[in-house]
Automatic annotation (TrEMBL):
GO molecular function: transferase activity
Source species taxonomy: Bacteria, Bacillati, Actinomycetota, Actinomycetes, Kitasatosporales
InterPro entries, sorted: AB_hydrolase_fold
Gene3D superfamilies: alpha/beta hydrolase (3.40.50.1820)
Name of the protein in its database record: Putative phosphoribosyl transferase
Keywords: Transferase
Length: 61
């Protein structure tokens, strides 16, 4: 989530507290909710790519 989107940040933190499974919230510093800032969306896609890689590697054994 974008670090400059305080409302969405609070909502996601509240949702994370309610989760009973392993999870990670990744905040892109200085980004808004649409990740329009230079490099922000690249950070989001890299974190998502790494998460998928880790999850599929773990699932595949």
């Amino acid at each position: 989530m974008g670090g400059r989107d305080q409302h969405v940040l609070r909502l996601n933190e509240e949702a994370a507290r309610r989760l009973h499974v392993p999870h990670t919230l990744h905040v892109v510093p200085g980004a808004t909710h649409l990740f329009e800032e230079p490099g922000a969306l690249d950070q989001v896609t890299e974190v998502a790519r790494q998460w998928c890689h880790d999850q599929l590697r773990t699932t595949a054994g």
